[in-house]
Amino acid sequence: MARVKEWAIELGKKFNTLSQPLNLLNPVPFEWGFQFFTELGKNTGITASSTVEFAEKLQTVPIQSVTFHFQRQDFQRWFINVIGDEELAKRIDQINVWTHDDENLRKKLSETVQNRIAESTKS
Question: Can you give the residue range of the structural domain that contains 57?
């Protein structure tokens, strides 16, 4: 587990350079994309390589995948370490899973990501 964390930190450093402005529309290499699982070892075969693609795929992945990753804070780690968007990760952290049923959780997460994309395209 420690090696995975170290790998994610090093990967994040490659994307989080001060010389590169944050651009949520730019895709990352496929192998660094967010892979949706429904549980450990059960990959859905769905991968998102950008924030925009993440928002699109979030609409169709099995709900079990949304709850699995949300509970593990996988979305936040990917947005911080790969995409470089700490602000979006903080907003996802503020979603209270206990006040949302599964589909409402998906809806709230989707709205949060889409709002961040809209902000990014305005600047």
Answer: 2-122
